[in-house]
Amino acid sequence: MADKRKSQGDDTRRKKKYRSDGTPIWGKRHVEGPGVWVSCVKGKEKQTVGEIYELFESIGSELWPHVDSESSEEDGDLSLEDQIAKEVSAMKQPRSKNPQLRFANCQTNTPCVIFISCKAPVDPVQLVVKYIKTIQTTGITRTRYVHRLVPVSGTCVANLPEIQALCRKVLKDFFEGHPETTFKYKIELRVRNHTTIPRPTMIQNVAQCVPEGHTVDLENPQIFILVEVFKSICGVSVVEDYYQLHKFNVTELAKHKDLDQSAESRLADKSAEDDGHA
């Protein structure tokens, strides 16, 4: 009898839940987006998380300033002891549970791979592009251990029904922001530690989610649909100028800028030398 009850309990726990559109909701995940995939120097994961927190909080405060008027009014009614107790309590909370902290590290249990989840109103694509374009302009990185950043507007379990549901949502949000524009696009798929779904099958299923009117262009795409699959997690976003921005590779962008500056310096020196001989 006990075994029967246990079996019924297992069946209840395993029973799938479904969204209103009929797609299944799968189990709880350690990695949940929107957020940013970060690849870094091996053995420097902890330091990378620290510098990413500092970087993202700085850019986030610039793009989406905190509005703390209500909180300030509430704090004004508290005694000094109560205010201190409130601050200590907030510090003890996990980052993911603290409403004042917009970024939280999600465990990947993999060397060199970090995922930083982002809370509203942060847009991971806008956040990363802001930083990458700053490097492109100045050649200065504000990180020591970061190799590459991949923003994703949402994440899901890496199975075809979930991936298609996520793609439809992300693509709908992007195209609604450009209602009168038709785009040439390319699906940029990167798969790591995942062997369940073949690449051609995944690309075909993502392409089926693109609304009519937009066309594939593998040579000169205007937008890139980034599909990042890591283990059992899939993340999706839509970006522009992906190749021009060196696929958001921080170190490559900095090197490229250094080479440009060196070339300009050599040309300036040669020009000055030629003027001196004239």
From TrEMBL:
Keywords: RNA-binding. One of its GO terms (molecular function) is RNA binding. Residues 1-26 are annotated as: Disordered. InterPro entries: THUMP_dom (IPR004114), THUMPD1-like (IPR040183). It comes from the Eukaryota. PANTHER family: THUMP DOMAIN CONTAINING PROTEIN 1-RELATED (PTHR13452), THUMP DOMAIN-CONTAINING PROTEIN 1 (PTHR13452:SF10). This is THUMP domain-containing protein.
